[in-house]
Design a protein that fits this description.
The relative contact order is 0.11. By secondary structure, this protein is an all-alpha fold. It comes from Capsaspora owczarzaki (strain ATCC 30864). Keywords: Phosphoprotein. InterPro entries: HPT_dom_sf, Sig_transdc_His_kin_Hpt_dom.
Length: 146
Amino acid sequence: MRFAVCRSLPQSAQVSGFQLTMLKTPPKQKLRMDPSDNTFLLETSYELLSKAPERLSLFRQGLATGDYIALKHLAHREKGSASTLGFNRLANAMLRFEYASYLVIYQFIQPDAQQFSTLYYTIEREYSVLRDYLQKLFASQAHPAH
């Protein structure tokens, strides 16, 4: 992901000239404004989604072994990646998983297998929804309707 970020940065970053109005622009309009935005979003999203099967496997392994410290760190890292890209539903699911792991580790609350199972399937579903949405978004950008 860092390579996609580095490629998208301007050669000379002028922080003082940054326009805050750009932040208020709807995402679909931003994609139409600059073709390099499409490439950047596609590359960073691809990085996140291509690692989803591996991450889901790590979640399953952590749940099977009861390694809630590893699960907390994994959920925290994935929460950061998802929220950085604006994938708020996935980030929220990761936050809930991270917090549930935190309670087991630091508050000595017994793990609730049903709760963790539900959280895992929520994360799995959000990855799937995100993949489908991005496929449709980029398909519509590649073939604009007349």
